[in-house]
Amino acid sequence: MSVDYLNTITENASRLGMRIQESLSEHSREINLARFNASSLEADDKGRNIRKQLDSSSDREKLDAMKRLIALISKGRIVSEYFAQVVKNVASQNLEIRKLVYIYVLRYAEQEPDLALLSINTFQKDLNDSNPFIRAMALRVLSGIRVPMVGNIVVLAIKKSAADFSPYVRKVAALAIPKCYQLDDSHLPSLIETITKMLNDTSPLSIGSVAVAFEAVCPTRLDLIHIKYRRLCKLLVEVDEWGQIDLLNLLLRYARTMLPRPIVNMDGEEVDKDIELLLSSSEPLLQSRNPAVVLAVVRVFWYAGPLSVHGKVVRPLLRLLQISKVVERVTLSYVLVLARNNASLFSPHYVRFFMLSDDSRQVKGEKIQLLVCLINYENHQPIFRELIEHTEDPNDQVVADCITAIGRCAEVVPESMQTCLAALTEMIKNPHDVVVSNAILVLKHLVQTQLSQGSSINAANPARSSLDIISSLAKKIDDIHHPEARACVVWLVGQYCVPGQTAHGATSIAEWAPDVLRKTAKGFSKEDVLVKLQITTLAAKLLVLCPADQTVGLLNQYVLSLARYDRNYDVRDRARVLSSLLAGVAPSALTSNDLITPFEEKGGVVLRSEQVKVVLFDGKASVASDNHTEHSNAIVGSLGIITGKSALSDVILPDWLEEGVESALRDSPDDAPVPPLQSMSSDPPRADPVGAVVLKPNARSSVPTGSSATNSRKWASNLDDFFNEGAGSETEKSSEDDNDTDDEEDEEMGEEEDEEEEEGDSDERHEGEYEVDSGEEREVLHKAVVNETGYEAFG
Length: 795
Fold this sequence. Notes:
two-stranded antiparallel ribbon, 38 helices, 58% helix, protein transport
């Protein structure tokens, strides 16, 4: 036994080795062909042997030639000169050759329309092939030939394939409809009719492609969906993954266009039953393995469901963050749009949005925005620490976003103001210009916000008062190189150089204010345009506040002289405007040389000092609030929320109807309740049934009656037991005691009484029995029943 077993193992091993060797040799041949493909193709640019191989009778030669042609096409070579030889192999029996021929024909059918028309007959014949794959491939190629004159043929082929028994062929027919419509839009009525018929398809494989065809050909004909809406909702779970996405988008558009908006009132939520059907049918898809399906379901729940179902999308979205980096990038865009509308959904899960070292710049940026949206009093401390930690990130944009987010935290949670100010003040000492400049921008915004509200930043701590912060910034003016940051510091110095909140009635200014003007005036010509404008304004403000200060007057005269002849016209215009304003404040400081012409000579209105202060100071402390208005119209599922720019492919979500269309339009025969089972006979009951057949046991068989007898009988499980049971019953019958005779008589009397009752109620109990009219037929039926069942039939 063991020897035979070993021989079997040895034989199987040898067979396996032979098969592996054959497989390796075949694969090595293909690998060698791929390796030396480039060199062989370079040496054979003119294709001297390709024509010979295409005309060969060997399928292997033809296959090699077609592979070489497809390789040339993939490299961008033009091989249309072989079109005539390739078309000859359209009807090849080899499926691999036919596939490559179809690819080649699709590529060059537009350039060789006459030769492509020669192969249409073959494609039409393939539409009747017994193999559904060949039928589908023929239709795909036929619809892909971009020759306008074949439009009618393509329409007929689509109509024929739309009624094919194979769901795969019907799927290809649905995908061919948009191609035909793009080729010739005059076939629109016929294509809409075909789509209407295909919407009745119950195959999950093809219904998703029908949705694609509907969106491409007739997206506004939602009236065609009325009677199919509920059936499509029920088919959602069974449709293929990519078909589910298109079907969900179609059903969402239908729901918002044809169904009433969910209403929230004092008694609860009023949701239409068809919307509930859509939500219940799509809810299982939240567990799909395809992230695109999950995001499509999220879109349906967010835009079609009431507020109570929005929480169901949180866990599936968090699950997608762990799949891959690419999926995480798209999912974060969805979550960011949802969090801006309802941050309470994701606030408990803020830890899931902390940044990782291997995150991309885009992912880190969106996580920072999410943390800002989710911040509240309970979680502001860990979020603040997370943002502080990532201010040392190697990417400058991430650093700038983190510092800006810190300032946003101080605005959202006023209790964190002092912590944010302390952190931003420390950042000014950082050696990196990016950190310093962005910290200054945020500090300027916070100081401006607090002072515009009429309160100091920290009245309890003088070290952190507004003037102290501005003073520290003024002393760092030489270390600040970012143009926007320098402009912010200069503006703060000019706006808040007086100890009070306003400049009205002030007679003195801070000592560091003229020093800032002196430092910036030295390098005025090298400053950025934005900084030049603020330096010019600072000189005018200081002169208005201290018109008698000679040093300030000289600095002002020097700055205005430089600005008057600057290369930038904005700076020149600013200097002329300010010189005119200051003419009534300190004319002695402005009338040197040809700086300005005296107002007495050119005429005009001279403003008083108080009026100039109103122009320069009042109304400049207000802060424009940033409420992300640019993202308010972002739609979940659009390409714009990922790229940051609107795209032509973004679908506009339709508005709700207040009442919707009638629900009866969506009623279909499939929704009707199943009627109870009725009698098979359609004739009305008769009082005296003639020739009704009634079965009763004859003398040859004894059938026990009653439920106990029925339950006690042991039924045969196979044919042998059936015959043995019959033989055993005859033996038991002969061995019965005489005492059983009385019982049999009682049973026969009971049966006679039952038969009399059956005859009286025959119009109800024998409505579906056989009816026999003639006596001969009744006699024949009687004999047949007796022979088959052992019962007598009597009428």
